[in-house]
Specification:
2 copies of one chain form a homodimer. By secondary structure, chain A is mainly α. The first copy, chain A, is 70% helix and 2% strand. Chain A binds a DNA duplex through α2.
Chain lengths: 174, 174
DNA sequence: CTTAAACTATGAAGCTGTAGTCAGGTCAAA
DNA sequence: TTTGACCTGACTACAGCTTCATAGTTTAAG
């Protein structure tokens, strides 16, 4: 049996958090002491570590509760959905990066920032021995093996949708 | 003079949002009609589009208000700070992706997901004509030109910090 | 001219996932 | 016995809105 303070230390979260989980029914201690203290069993700990895991994956408490309580629903679908959501979130953040770089007036900052440019990427590939032909081939292979990731990668270089469309177009054809 | 509804259409946001902006003082209409309707001037529109821009960059309303109202503070520093924040946010989301892929049992999903694997990346480079030597050179160039981006990219392939450390280590030396 | 739809107003409460504060009850050790 | 560490429930605050309730105004149709 563990008190609330012990869980707080184990999982490095605040007491308020556990109180809240109790209140919303996500993690309710299996017992109470004579003095009405919350007492968590090993099963509760087990449940808590599941919650922790899913939280790290970015799931909402509501969704976590669904997974844990309605056993019928296997988590696979939910996790896949979250994976998709993550893709859109990341791409939104990348758009924010590109916008800020524009606002800052490009040149000065591109060098210091960790955001890559199309030109910089091409320069690196050239410097490591790739020629035009090899790069074309690289796009083709990328598109064949991981079309979605190809799209994401080009976006991350700040290339516009129109140009991306063209590149992927001819990469698919060959 | 524009009513609140006209702004709603122009900027594609909800009326409640504008009411809220009014309340917190971020965007207060310059005038009111006889019936006490909010009336926005062209200057207000101008201000709104600035707000919109900074919002797209992911700045908080509080920070936006600072930039717009305290003209002394040039936005550069704030934007650079946001750029840094974006890097950590993106890398957190990538960690969530990797975790979910683990939870899903890897193999089945890696093929359909848009997340790249080290193996997949290497396969693409090989298929487009790179050999071991060229890849080594590629790391060296990447590290020399954009060390931070190199780190980010390796992280995005799900490579552990220890291995990343090794790769960047020898890439720096040569 | 009337009436209904479509607009506008104010104010309050709700949402998520915590963090923190309060006044007090409990418990083990010195 | 008294300290001090722990615990209790209940409350407030945060961002950036949304929703709700209630009501006044404008505009177009009939």
């Amino acid at each position: 049996m563990y008190t609330i303070g012990q869980l707080v230390k184990q999982f490095e979260l605040s007491r308020s958090t556990l109180l809240y989980y109790d209140k919303i029914g996500l993690l309710q201690p299996s017992a109470r002491s004579a003095a009405n203290y919350r007492l968590y069993t090993k099963d509760d700990l087990q449940r808590m570590s599941q919650i922790f895991l899913y939280k790290e994956a970015g799931l909402s408490l509501e969704v976590i509760a669904q997974i844990l309580d309605e056993q019928s629903n296997q988590p696979t679908a939910i996790l896949e959905q979250r994976l998709n959501q993550l893709n859109t979130e990341i791409s939104q953040l990348r758009q924010q990066q590109q916008l800020i770089i524009e606002l800052l007036g490009k040149e000065s900052l591109l060098r210091t920032s960790r955001v890559m440019d199309k030109a910089q990427w091409v320069a690196i590939l050239k410097a490591s021995g790739m020629d035009e032909q090899a790069m074309k081939q690289w796009h083709i292979e990328f598109e064949r093996g991981l079309p979605e990731a190809h799209q994401d990668f080009l976006e991350s270089l700040g290339i516009g949708q129109d140009e991306i469309g063209k590149i992927r177009g001819w990469a698919r054809l060959e």
